[in-house]
Structure formats: C-alpha cells, structure tokens
Amino acid sequence: MWSLLGVAVIALGFALRVNPLLAIAAAALTSGLGAHIDFFRIVAAFGHAFVESRYVTVAFLVLPVIGLLEREGLQERARLLIGRLRAATAGRLLLVYLLLRQLTASVGLVALGGQAPMVRPLIAPMAEAAAEQRGVRDKAERAKVRAMAAATDNIGAFFGEDVFIAIGSILLIKGFLEQSGVIVQPIALSFWAIPTAIAAFLIHGTRLLLLDARLVRRSAASGTPSQPIEKP
C-alpha cells in the first residue's frame, strides 16, 4: 500500500501549483520507493521512458516556427483573406474547419491541427475577422469567438480520432474492456465511433450556426453596421 503514496504526492503537487512535470516525477519516485524498487532502477525507468517517447518533443520545434510566422504578419494576412470573402461568417468558417478536422483525424492525421500550430495563428484570427466584418466590435464577443475556435479544434480531434483504428484511445478502450472480460476488436470500436463523430458534428455545428445568429443580434442591438475590414 505504500506505493499509493504517489497519488497523494501528485495531488499535493497540483494543489500547491508545483510544476506538473516535477510533481509527476516526484509521485513516480515516491511510488517506486514505496514499492521497494531500487532507486537506480527508478532512474533507469525514467531514462528508458524518455528515450522511447523522445519523438513527442519534436512537436515543440513547431512553436518557434509559428512564432516567427506570427511576427512576420501571419495573423494579419489571415484576417485580410477572410475580409475579401463576403459570405464568410465566424460560424461557417468554424463549421468547415470542424469538418476538415474530423475527417483528417479519422484517418490518423491528428497533427494537422491543434491549438498552437493552427487555431491561434490562423483559425481564431480568421473567425474573429469574419465576426468583425459583420459588425461585431465588442471585446467579450470576440473572446467568445476565439474560445469557440479552440473548442471546435478540440471537438473535431477528440471525436474524429476514435474512428481511426490505430490510435491510442482505441487501444486504451480495448485494453480496459479486456480487463473487464469483454473481448472486442479495434475495428469494431472504430466502426461504432462513427455515429458518435456524426452526432458531435451535428451538435457542435448547430452551436456554430447559433453563434452566427447571436452575433448578428448583438451587432444589430449595438447599432454597429457591417463593414469590410480595411487593409492596414
């Protein structure tokens, strides 16, 4: 039972707002020592886990590239592009992105989207520009548009990736069911994830269309006319 002390350590670390990586490492070390595992074996396990999953850190290389693109005016160009599309609205734009995000995630291309490489530099500024083109100038409403852009990416990836047979979530579900005595094939899990993905698209798509309707009402109530975005 001493190995369960790791749970208390990680809970205490999060409560004290300690660096999450440090809290998790301390919890793993506490659990290992509580289970009477040699200290050097625990450190070796840390090193082995890092080497086996070092490809995960490759994603951090994207962040400097995104920062450089933003510095060179990526967001401004995205806003100007949407300003030229008269039929574009925040809801329609996010609806198209939701569809693309789900389709790409369903074939395993989860890395094509994301908050840092896609939403912040492109999707959110474009959605905000589309809302401004309809006369939305209120800061609170613009913040809601950005939040909806972030939610759209999360929903599209979360419900789309389960359709792909070789994704970690499918393997996790399969392992959990087998522990409970339920034997199921990954292809069956992927097949039954399709109705859930469709339902998620319809529900969130309705939310996006309602977002457009709400923005129009707010714009009309504030008396701000719809006008195109001027070039800087």
What gyration radius follows from the Cα positions, in whole Å? Answer: 23 Å
Residues in helices, as a percent range: over 70%
What is the terminal separation in angstroms? Answer: 64 Å
Tell the overall outline.
globular
Number of strands: 0
Query: What is the string of SSEs from the N terminus onward?
Result: HHHHHHHHHH
Tell me the number of helical segments per DSSP (H or I, 4 or more residues long).
Answer: 10
Give the structural class: mainly alpha
Multimeric state: single chain
Low-confidence stretches: 226-232
β-sheet strand percentage: under 5%
Largest sheet: none
Give average pLDDT, whole number.
81
Domain module tally: 2
Top keywords for this entry?
232 residues; mainly alpha; 2 domains
